[in-house]
Design a protein that fits this description.
The chain is an alpha+beta fold. Helices cover 36% and strands 12% of the residues. Strands 1-2 form a two-stranded antiparallel ribbon. The protein has a two-stranded antiparallel sheet with strand order 3-4.
Amino acid sequence: MKDCNQCGKCCIKYGGGDLAVTKQEIELWELVNPEIYEYVKGNEIWFDPQSGEKLAQCPFLETVRDPAQAREKYTCSIYKDRPEDCRLYPSTINEMIRDGCEMIEKVDLDNPITAQKKLDLIMIDSRPGKI
C-alpha cells in the first residue's frame, strides 16, 4: 500500500455534506470554531452561510499545485477539526477499491487480508482503541 498522495477522490466523493456529523461535533464547532459552524444548518453540514444552499463540496477542501509532480494535491484546511467521518476514512480495503483510492497497489488486491492489516496500522491514530 502506498502513502496517501492527496488525490482528493475521497473528499470529492464524500465531502458534499453527505457525511454524518455528531451533535457533539456541531456543538464544539459552535463554541470553538465558528468559522466551521457557519457552514452548519440544523444537524447537517456544508451549507453556504449567505444563501443557506447546500454546497456541492466541502468548503474546506483546498487544492494546491504540486510542481514536482505536475498535478494538483488536495488539502483540508480544518484537518485537525474535521468531522469524525473524515477521520475514519478509509476503513476497509473494499471501500478503497470501490472509491478508486490511489493508495491501493496490485499486491493489496492479491492479498486483501494483509492489506487490511496494513490499513488498520496506517489508520491507528484515527481509530484509537480499534486495534
